[in-house]
Amino acid sequence: MQRWVTEFLPSLVEQYGQEFYDEVLASASPWIVDFYAPWCGHCIQFAPVYEKLAKYFEGRVRFAKVDCDRYPGVCQNAQIRAYPSIRFYIGSEQNGERQNPIGMHVQSQNYDAIIQIIESALSHYRSRDEL
């Protein structure tokens, strides 16, 4: 029921398939991507947390989801082996130049832990860019 309701609510999370390559990997913006399977219980439980994270980072980090049942090639290229798998992509140094599809693995499904991981990564990359 919860999944059905959340599918119809407005969301800051983009649903991508093949567009992942152009929209995420070739973007200069930072992205967090949830690679999931619709039948996965942990994915269903994580969905509201992911939406909440998208609200927290609104305007600073963009959010997307990739359904690995529908787009297995995209998930294979990102080396997804478990669901949900959360990956962070800092953004291409030159808009249009593609990033590595593997990205940075975010090894948590906890709201506060993910915030800490992403804030740390953002500040690390920002300080690198300022050098």
Query: Roughly how much helix do the residues carry, as a percent range?
Result: 40-55%
Number of helices: 5
Question: Could you name the ranges where pLDDT drops below 50 across 5 or more consecutive residues?
Answer: none
Number of beta-strand segments = 5
> How much is the average pLDDT?
90
Placed side by side, the strands forming the largest sheet appear as 1-3-2-4-5
Supply the key terms.
131 residues; Glutaredoxin; five-stranded mixed β-sheet; 5 helices; Thioredoxin domain-containing protein
In short:
It comes from Panagrolaimus sp. ES5. Helix content is 41%, strand content 18%.
Please explain how this structure is put together:
It is built from five helices and five strands; from the N terminus they run H-E-H-E-H-E-H-E-E-H. The chain is of the alpha/beta class and 131 residues long. The chain has a single domain (2-130), classed as Glutaredoxin (3-Layer(aba) Sandwich), CATH 3.40.30.10. It has a five-stranded mixed sheet with strand order 1-3-2-4-5. The mean pLDDT is 90.
